[in-house]
Amino acid sequence: MKQPSVKRATQLELEAKIEELSRFQEELEASRNKYALLYDLAPVGYFTFNRGGAIQTVNLTGLRFLGVERADVVGRRFQEFVADDEYFVFVNFQEKVFQGSGKQTCRLGLRPRNGRQQYVRIEAMVTASGEECLAVLVDITEKKQSEQALSESEYNLAKAQSMTHVGSWSFDPDTARVKASDELLRIMRLSRDQASPDSFAEAVHPDDRDNVMRHLRLGIEHGKSYEIEHRLQFSDGVCRWVHSIVEPSVNSAGKVVRLYGTTQDVTERKRAEVELSNKTSELQAIFDSIGDGITVYDQDGRIQHHNKISPRMFPGEMVPGRDCRDIFHAGLPSLPEECPVERALRGERVETSLVSIREGRETLYLDVTATPIKDAFGDRNRALVFFRDISEKRLQEMYLIQAEKMSSIGVLATGIAHEINNPLTSVAGCAEALLRRFRDRPALKDAPGLEDFPHYLQVIVRESYRCSGIIDNLLSFGRKSDGLSVNIDLNIILLEILELISHQPNYRQVRLATALQQGLPGVNGDPSALRQVCMNLLINAHQAVTGDGLVEVITSGPVNGMISVSIRDTGCGISKDNIDRIWDPFFTTKEAGKGIGLGLALTYNIVKRHAGEILVKSKLGEGTQFIVLLPVTRK
Questions:
Q1: For 549, which DSSP code?
Q2: Same domain (yes/no): 509, 619
Q3: What pLDDT is stored for residue 1 in this prediction?
Q4: What is the mean pLDDT of the segment spanning 347-357?
Q5: What's the CA gap between 365 and 276, in Å, rounded?
Q6: Same domain for 245 and 327?
Q7: N or C: which end of the chain has fewer CB within 10 A?
Q8: Is the pLDDT of residue 414 over 50?
Q9: Residue 515 belongs to what domain range?
């Protein structure tokens, strides 16, 4: 009976051991799974490599680093996943690991995946067998990128400071510690080891040191920002100017814990300011020494600067801040199209004339030139205006014009007197006939013979009007110019001159052809002066023709804002040697007593003063053509 019970007990013990072993195996499996899970899900990559760099084992994190599946990685060399430029870095690192010199560390860049560069830190050591190494990979991409960004920022800051000559610094009032950038040390001529408060203070010019230190103390005590310019004095005697901006950093208790500053080398700017000041004084002296009035108008047409001559021309109006209407368009609220300042502000260069009539002052005749001053940014212009007093010259011209008119009138006087004499003779004859009849036969006033009386009256009226017309044209031409500009119809002026010339007997043999364009636009100018231009050219044309010939007068336009007056003759023409001299005063090819050589010189000046052009075409023996171009009156 004992033997079965022993056997039973042994069986029960064995079953208990089996159960305990099974439970231990389950716990072991659970623990193995737990650690396998921890191994795979660890935030670092675990690898084992053989001597050739082939991957033996790897966890899931390591697979994610490489971007492959487990089946595609075992047996492959880790070098395949390393960036090309760091291939030999890993090879050398692996050699050191298998040399058994303890744990080795290196940083590598892996091949980019999806356009993203990845960086890892590898720590590895060889196993006891010496055939494998265990490696841990840590992702340092963000840290590497931060380091690169910081390095790039520091480089850019250093470059910016070097290019702008601006150094940065900070000062701790408690520790008296100064941190300075490389550019600041270069400006202060200090090495990194010499960067101390005393060294910085010694570099300040002795005359400026107290002021600099006073500002520094106030910044520390009161926590206020400030700016200061001062000099630096170096041991070799060189002096430099710097500009500093200081900002305090204050804690919650209101205490200044640090001062931050930037210091810029402004020596070149200071030198430029001195040179600019000297140049400004020099230019102002030149500005004031010019005999013409000079005025600068701002973008709104207001006086900004002027030289000393301008107020003498316009004592009450030439004041900084006053606008151009006081001089160019008094009484108008806005800038008209014809205002030279307005046109210059629009970018035009303007040459015009101005007659200044002020009560209690002498009348001024001025040449005005307005030129735009381009803005540095190209947005808005200013205007530079020159006023040249030509009053004396203008009066002389008017005297010369009047003298030339009188000379022309003298040339025409004989013919006009002859023409006036004929109608006056008819008037006198008819009057004498009537007087004889009324004297001899008093009863005639009641006689049938009075039927002739109306005829004689018609003759008297007709011839009287003819005389009146001739005299009116003559007086119109001889009237003295007042120098004022008005709107003029050149066709009317030409017809007046042609009427005067047509009564000259010597000119009757010359055929006259006219083609005056109807509706010709007006021009703005001095009527008397333009009459003189037409008279000079027409008389020259008629005088150039000897015997039978033709004088042709044509008006046309506008073309490019200009109208033209062409006066052509079939006379003797002008030689090539003389054609360039015809505008010179007192040059003439006429016989003595027939001209003094001022006609074409005055004509040229008058046309130029009216912003026009005068052209000449001539061939010796075939004739000459003068073409006068004048700008159409702007509306």
A1: E
A2: yes
A3: 47
A4: 84
A5: 37
A6: no
A7: N
A8: no
A9: 395-631
* Domain contains 201: yes
pLDDT of 221-236, one tens digit each? 888 899 999 999 998 9
For residue 403 the two structure tokens come to: 């003298």
Let me know if residue 207 belongs to a domain.
Answer: yes
Residue scoring higher pLDDT (443 or 347): 347
For residues 349 and 445, membership in a common domain is answered with: no
Residue 489 shares a structural domain with residue 586? yes
- Average pLDDT over the chain reads 80
Amino acid at 61: T
Contact 124, 134 (CB under 8 A): yes
Closest of 360, 288, 300, 354 to residue 327, by C-alpha: 354
Nearby residues of 357 by Cβ (< 8 Å), 6 or more positions away:
363
Asked if 371 contacts 384 with a C-beta cutoff of 8 angstroms, the reply is yes
Amino acid at the residue 32: R
Dist. CA 597–CA 585, nearest whole Å: 6
| Total number of residues shown for the chain | 635
Say whether both 99 and 169 belong to one domain. no
Query: Is the pLDDT reported for residue 71 higher than 50?
Result: yes
372 strand-pairing partners: 383
Q: State the amino acid at position 211 in one-letter form.
A: N
Residues 421 and 512 occupy one common structural domain: yes
Residue located via tokens 């760099």: 53
Between 559 and 152, the more confident residue is: 559
Residue 95 makes CB contacts below 8 A (sequence gap 6+) with none
Give me the CATH number covering residue 234. Answer: 3.30.450.20
Question: pLDDT (tens digit, 9 = 90+) per residue, 588-622?
Answer: 666 544 555 567 877 888 898 889 999 999 988 88
Task: Tell me how far apart the alpha carbons of residues 72 and 345 are, in angstroms, rounded to a whole number.
Answer: 77
Contact 491, 498 (CB under 8 A): no
Q: Are 126 and 91 in contact (CB under 8 A)?
A: no
Look at the block and give the residue holding tokens 């800051």.
157
* Contact between 283 and 296 (Cβ < 8 Å): no
Query: Cβ–Cβ contacts within 10 Å for residue 84, how many?
Result: 8
What lies within 8 Å, CB to CB, of 464 at 6+ separation is: 423, 427
What span, in angstroms and rounded, lies between the C-alpha atoms of 520 and 592? 39
Identity at 576, one-letter amino acid code = K
Query: Residue 557 in 3-state DSSP?
Result: strand
Phi/psi class of residue 62: alpha, beta or left (left: φ > 0; alpha: ψ in -120 to 50)? alpha
One-letter amino acid at 191 equals S
CB atoms < 10 A from the CB of 24, how many? Answer: 10
Tens of pLDDT, residues 475-517: 454 455 555 678 889 999 898 888 877 766 667 778 889 999 9
Helix (H) or strand (E) holding 516: strand 510-516
- Are 614 and 603 a contacting pair, CB within 8 Å? yes
